[in-house]
Design brief:
Length: 603
């Protein structure tokens, strides 16, 4: 196999992959978000899921793309793992359609109808129409259709190039000998897995196998184990897409691997065991592109038909392999509290909502503390955890908000109505705490990535402010958790102090910039952190204010804050002065003096 032949084969593979990608992207753009919406809405039964997965995958020409989309739905909480199983099974069948499309590239003829139906003619006509759509029509939908046509033409040209490159090999005895080695089931399966894992596409692997079949050297015994391995290798991009997802996302990706792994193991045992006894006479039959497409479709469809009755057991298996932690079980328990049957009994529903909100508050507090710890020592795992838990906090807001809005339509007394109003007001504040945790985590990432370090003085000031922020979050969450108005009353004085500290630290940082002690890179991150810490304190204050004002009289946050800040009674002032002493940003200078004294004594 000369260098020219290898280059020609690789260029064919490149054109094939590019054409498939261009065609799939064009199809997805033409459909817009409709494919995703259909996937989400029409999966209430396994049969519907399988049919849907097969159709969508046949359209976008990629089982991996369909499964990655589903992993995203499950990861976001929009779809359950059980719903995803049917779609993934359907995707396994749908991806075999590509092999049948590729059979068109082997239609050829020298005259008459055969010439009109030849690959060269079809590709040329489709390419000409595609480029007209792409270059001369203004509407985006027509341009996308042009991309689909051009992608199809490039895909066909790629197949022709691959076939042309390997065609001379049919005369090579060495090549035929190498291929016959793959009739060994284990060797063939390994080749299929590795080849597909590298190409990241089952369709591409099947296409190349079809191209090789024109040499007349691909027998049934060679093609079957490679086809089995191709399915397992195609799981690689799906498993990679699950990195960084939550446990349900990882379970969904694992389902794809389990389906193909089962097909490979089951049919290997059954088929080769029977063959050992019966000795099938078709094992040495030479296969062409169409027979390989048929084998691929039959193998995948038969595997899914066997697995369909065991969907519930597959779900149990992935949950056994990837177990929930106590924290995950706690989260699910919070959502289980919001039972719709309780809506008929407002007192119970309100009590359940309070318990679920306690869980939300706890997650928001933990995420802020997790984000603040990243400023002291950055960790990629912890950074990813902040992002993951923010999605969970958003889910709390969505579920609680929907549940409480349903509750407002029920008959309630005045105190119950006030309680529901308080909860509706506070869930948005807890959700915003989660957003600011993400902002702080991103600032910590920037500090780590760009190797930015604050000056010693700025670092000391930031530590003081972080401690104050931790306390104000603790106060607000504990006050809400225990419905303690005395604790709630301590939040606003600390919030006011944090606001004053943030203003003072901004001025000090500007002074350091002027003196050249800090640069602009440090300044941007420092200022961003101050803004986020100030907003965290403000949302904590909103939670406390909602509790106090609702208990006192009619709900009016702004009036309450105005009266508190204007009157500032003795308790408020004592609390403020206590915090002022506790979080003293001038301590840096005295600590430096103490260090100097210690050093001089040692000398």
């Amino acid at each position: 196999m000369g260098i020219t032949m290898i280059l020609s084969l690789l260029s064919g593979v490149a054109l094939f992959l590019f054409g498939m990608s261009l065609m799939g992207d064009g199809l997805k753009r033409v459909a817009g978000n409709k494919l995703e919406l259909i996937l989400y809405q029409l999966t209430n039964t396994p049969v519907k899921g399988i049919l849907l997965g097969a159709v969508v995958t046949a359209i976008i020409q990629s089982s991996s793309a369909t499964t990655v989309m589903v992993v995203g739905f499950v990861n976001s909480g929009m779809m359950k793992v059980a719903q995803a199983i049917g779609i993934i099974m359907g995707a396994n069948i749908g991806t075999s359609i590509t092999g049948w499309i590729l059979c068109l590239s082997y239609i050829d003829g020298s005259s008459g109808i055969a010439q009109l139906l030849s690959t060269a003619t079809i590709s040329a006509i489709v390419a000409i129409i595609g480029i007209i759509f792409k270059m001369f029509l203004k509407k985006a939908v027509y341009k996308n259709v042009g991309d689909i046509m051009l992608g199809f033409s490039i895909l066909m040209v790629g197949m022709q190039t691959m076939s042309g490159a390997v065609s001379p090999l049919k005369e090579s005895e060495e090549f035929v000998h190498v291929l016959t080695m793959f009739s060994n089931p284990i060797a063939g399966i390994i080749v299929g897995i590795l080849f597909t894992a590298v190409l990241q596409s089952a369709s591409a692997s099947v296409g190349i196998l079809q191209a090789l079949s024109v040499t007349g050297a691909i027998s049934f015994a060679t093609a079957l184990p490679i086809t089995m391995g191709i399915g397992v290798g195609a799981a690689c991009p799906v498993l990679l897409s699950s990195i960084g997802t939550n446990k349900n996302g990882k379970r969904t990706a694992l389902i794809y691997l389990i389906n193909d792994l089962f097909g490979m193991v089951f049919w290997s045992i059954v088929f080769y065991s029977v063959n050992a006894i019966v000795h099938f006479d078709f094992m040495d039959t030479i296969l062409g592109p169409m027979q390989i497409a048929m084998m691929n479709t039959v193998f995948r469809t038969a595997t899914i038909l066997i697995l369909v009755p065991f969907i519930k057991y597959i779900e149990k298996l992935v949950f056994t392999l990837i177990k929930d932690s106590p924290e995950d079980e706690e989260e699910q328990a919070d959502f289980d509290l919001l039972e719709e049957r309780f809506l008929a009994y407002p007192a119970i529903a309100i009590s359940q909502s309070h318990l679920a909100m306690n869980g939300m508050a706890k997650k928001a507090r933990k995420n802020i503390f997790r984000a603040l710890s990243l400023l002291e020592g950055f960790s990629q795992d912890k950074f990813q955890k902040v992002q993951e838990k923010e999605n969970l906090i958003d889910k709390y807001e969505d579920k609680l908000g929907t549940y409480l809005m349903q509750l407002t339509g029920k008959e309630m007394d005045a105190s119950q109505t006030k309680q529901v109003s308080k909860f509706l007001h506070t869930i948005s504040d807890f959700e915003r705490l989660g957003d600011h945790a993400v902002n702080i985590a991103e600032a910590a990432y920037e500090l780590s990535d760009k190797k930015i370090e604050f000056s010693e003085e700025a670092g000391y000031e930031m530590n003081v402010l972080e401690d104050a922020t931790r306390e104000v979050v603790d106060l607000a969450v504990n006050a809400f958790w225990e419905d303690d108005l005395e604790v709630a009353a301590k939040v606003e004085p600390l919030r006011e102090l944090i606001g004053i500290l943030c203003d003072e630290l901004k001025l000090r940082h500007i002074a350091r910039l002027r003196m050249g002690k800090c640069d602009m890179k440090q300044g941007f991150v420092f200022n961003d952190l101050l803004n986020n810490l100030e907003r965290i304190a403000a949302h904590c204050s909103n939670v406390a204010v909602a509790m106090i004002e609702l208990e006192a009289s009619d709900f009016d946050t702004h009036e309450y804050l105005k009266s508190v800040r204007e009157l500032k009674n003795e308790d408020y002032m004592q609390c403020f002065e206590m915090y002022e002493k506790k979080y003293n940003i001038n301590g840096f200078q005295s600590s430096k003096k103490n260090k100097k004294k210690t050093v001089s004594k040692e000398d």
